[in-house]
Q: What sequence folds into this?
């Protein structure tokens, strides 16, 4: 079998994969439909393996990096799931309090990639907290398929409360200067938009390819927004025009970046949807945005 690279696959495979990982089609249907694209020496098993995240080979900031200090903590979320486990990461050489960044995972719990993103935020000079919304169900189970199944069992509003409680924990932390922003990916992007609606004191919000807030909720937003979208992400992008219109009409501070020719999930460097150029640009913009608003 030939070694697969991202260009070998028909774009429809990525669209089907997006529908599968967002629970729009079942696994059996997904496998049956990608069978049509197992041609030229490709096999269904090979395609499935290629699409899965490769966490061990895509770590940008090692767990034991001496430039950061990290620990797992628990905090109280009385309106959500009770006690929530989270990864807390700080710069090892921080001189005084820093800005805080809440890192919100995708629809599969706190997997190794999101923990790595939290470490990247700490390396950029922030105190980062990455909660696991699967804590009430035992936590991230070690693989994304089971993680998605578990996350579907949780109430979305209760999970929002868990992240709002995480924001409160971070804002009160002695190592944080009182200014906290949020960055989230996919499900986490939707949570970032929702937190901007709910929290008038939120310092900044950066949703990556996340579902938008309803137009009627936009007047309540006070945090500046920096939004990142994948050019090929028809599902999420469908909600952007109405959101943009509401943000403009309500004179809300925001900037939006659409990265042409890239897939939903382009920032996740553990999967073939990753686009290095777009991901690096989006992250550099995120760090600059947080440095401006959280200092």
A:
């Amino acid at each position: 079998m030939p070694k697969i690279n991202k260009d070998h696959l028909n774009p429809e495979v990525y669209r089907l994969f997006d529908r599968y990982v967002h629970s729009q089609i079942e696994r059996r249907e997904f496998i049956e439909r990608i069978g049509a694209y197992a041609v030229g020496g490709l096999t269904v098993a090979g395609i499935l393996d290629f699409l899965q995240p490769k966490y061990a080979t895509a770590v940008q900031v090692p767990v034991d990096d001496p430039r950061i200090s990290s620990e797992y903590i628990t905090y109280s979320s009385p309106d959500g799931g009770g006690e929530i486990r989270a990864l807390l990461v700080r710069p090892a050489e921080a001189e005084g309090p820093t800005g805080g960044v809440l890192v919100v995972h995708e629809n599969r719990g706190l997997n190794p990639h999101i923990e790595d993103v939290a470490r990247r935020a700490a390396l950029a000079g922030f105190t980062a907290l990455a909660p696991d919304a699967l804590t009430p169900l035992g936590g991230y189970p070690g693989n994304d398929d089971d993680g998605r199944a578990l996350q579907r069992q949780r109430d979305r509003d209760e999970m929002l409360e868990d992240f709002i409680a995480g924001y409160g924990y971070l804002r009160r932390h002695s190592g944080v200067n009182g200014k906290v922003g949020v960055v989230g990916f996919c499900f986490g992007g939707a949570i970032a938009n929702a937190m901007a609606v709910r929290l008038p004191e939120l310092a900044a919000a950066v949703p990556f390819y996340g579902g938008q807030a309803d137009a009627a909720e936009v007047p309540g937003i006070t945090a500046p927004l920096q939004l990142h979208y994948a050019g090929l992400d028809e599902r999420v992008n469908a909600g952007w025009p109405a959101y943009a219109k509401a943000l403009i009409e309500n004179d809300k501070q925001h900037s939006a970046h659409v990265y042409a020719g890239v897939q939903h999930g382009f920032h996740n460097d553990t999967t073939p949807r990753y686009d290095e150029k777009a991901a690096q640009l989006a992250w550099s913009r995120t760090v600059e945005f947080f440095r401006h608003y959280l200092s």
